[in-house]
Design brief:
14% strand; Rossmann fold; six-stranded parallel sheet; globular
Length: 339
């Protein structure tokens, strides 16, 4: 989201719109130094914003929230202090099995109590909007819409050829259990010995589940197959070194790594969760399998590795047409310009 914040701020300035950014801390990397950032590390971002909103000089016309819990008393308090249009953006994935019953009931009650204080709900995928309606009630449907996340194509190196047999694979993911990389490891264990002796999967990323994943690789005697390469800031130039990206995730909202991989002309093998199928069309620019279905993933990997399944199209075109950072910025800017 960093690039979106920078680009949105710049576009607003070009349109004579002043934006104040309320963050939980002082961000200084990249173009954050060009933003008007307000923060108080001794207070929660909600408390600090409410205090600031009570000041007469902060007479905002639009208030956007990102990464805040929706339909809470905070939004009611904001509405009491301001006449601004409140636009709440939901980036959050949901558990594969859904929320427990008690949490679903609490969310529905919050929707009845506080959704009236939000003028517009933005989901970053069609999936997200459907989940918003499930969470807070269908009465919010008239004030929901989708604005897809986008990426900067100029930063991403593009692959110009693809191995249709014995392809190379990468994983780019935070290493936590919900990302399903343990399923991938177990799927590789089911492959024929001839493939296991050759297949190579590089895993980029770090996280609290790394040691468990490495232990599983060792337990299943798959160390030659997996290379844990850690986190890197160079992913945008690394995707193009591979033929396919693997993302066996159990929960997703709308994955930027999927968009980046496609922009690099690297098809994606991923699960049928979240907004994945809004970017990946099975057998066209990637492959979809059922989340947690290890046998299905193993069969798919075997067919792809042997060349029995292949992707021939330029996967970048979809991103150029639908998921650029410029489109994302203009969609949000239009919420301000066209009242």
């Amino acid at each position: 989201m960093d690039v979106f914040f920078w680009e949105f701020d710049q576009k607003c300035k070009e349109t004579d719109i002043q934006v104040d950014w309320y963050f939980p801390n002082d961000a200084t990397h990249g173009d954050y130094q060009l933003l008007t950032i307000k923060y108080d590390s001794s207070k929660s971002i909600e408390s600090f914003f409410l205090e600031s909103l009570a000041q007469p000089e902060n007479d905002y016309t639009h208030i956007f929230t990102h990464f805040l819990e929706l339909c809470t008393p905070f939004f009611q308090q904001v509405k009491q202090l301001s006449k601004a249009k409140i636009i709440a953006v939901d980036h959050n994935p949901r558990p594969l099995e859904g929320y427990p019953v008690d949490k679903r009931i609490k969310k529905r009650i919050k929707g009845l109590l506080f959704s009236r204080s939000i003028d517009l709900f933005i989901g970053v995928s069609e999936y997200t909007v459907k989940e918003l309606l499930k969470d807070f009630g269908r009465h919010i449907q008239p004030k929901t819409r989708v604005i897809y996340n986008g990426i900067n194509l100029e930063e991403i190196k593009t692959r110009t050829n693809r191995n249709l047999e014995k392809p190379t694979f990468l994983v780019a993911s935070h290493l936590r259990q919900s990302k399903g990389i343990q399923d991938l490891i177990q799927a590789v264990a089911l492959l024929p010995e001839a493939i296991k002796n050759e297949i190579k999967i590089d895993v980029f990323g770090d996280g609290p589940y790394k040691m468990e994943l490495q232990a599983l690789v060792e337990e299943l005697q798959l160390k030659p197959c997996f290379n844990f390469k850690g986190s890197t800031a160079q992913l945008k130039s690394i995707y193009a070194n591979y033929d396919y990206m693997l993302q066996p995730t159990h929960m997703e909202c709308f994955s930027l790594s999927i968009l980046e991989s496609l922009a690099a002309n690297v098809p994606v093998i991923t699960t049928n969760v979240g907004g994945n199928e809004e970017a990946i069309t099975h057998n066209e620019n990637g492959f979809i399998f059922e989340a947690k279905n290890i046998k299905q993933l193993a069969n798919l990997l075997q067919e792809i590795y042997l060349g029995d399944r292949k992707i021939n199209v330029n996967a970048r075109k979809l991103i150029e047409d639908r998921f650029t950072i410029d489109k994302m910025v203009m969609n949000y800017l239009n919420l301000i310009i066209y009242k």
